């Protein structure tokens, strides 16, 4: 039960962080796209720094959850980040929510609950993964990241940052999601090493440094997504790609077991319900129109 609570709290922290980061990024000029100078400019924004604090809190909560539970349990719960983000965005950018959005959020909750219940993921062997599996799975994740990044990079750069480019925001969001999923795999490995060798073992192990590098790349890609376009384009791609990559790592690399047979069919139906509700939320006119409005005093 504590694993579920920590995961939900991590989703809440991530949602707050996403809205604050988008609020800061939409004021940045288009010519800063994909440039390190973008981070330098954002560091001067108190709103963005508050969002960064939210990232840190979310990371710590996620690490605590992964220390107690499995990747294929913790990461799907983080999908809750999407409705929380979009609802908070509607509040910050001043737009009333409609029954459509509330219904989609309930549908997401039902789909997520069904997915976890029917799959019923069980513990794997994260402490016994050979080096070549890490290498192959890591390379595959990096290829997926590069493909999403290149697809986004080829999109049009919008002149109006409040409107943005849906393709670039979604593509960079997918790339960031891939990297956050890979980072979650390394977080899991770090927690395993901590349990086996203590804090000294964490700092002498390679997993910590891979986690830092992947996490930094994920943060850069996230800022690129937030700078490229609106949350309704970036957030669904980010929120779904992250747990998808994490679950694939959990099942194929860490050996986490899920139920098959008829349970798998019901799990697929729950996943389709979840995906459909994500699409409904991502196309919300109430939230999308709100984000293009200038903020008072901004």
UniProtKB/TrEMBL annotation:
Annotated TM spans: 45-66, 102-119, 131-149, 199-222, 234-255, 261-281
This protein's record includes keyword Transcription: no
Keyword terms, alphabetized: Membrane, Transmembrane, Transmembrane helix
Domain of life: Bacteria
Protein name, UniProt field: DMT family transporter
Organism phylogeny: Bacteria, Bacillati, Actinomycetota, Actinomycetes, Kitasatosporales
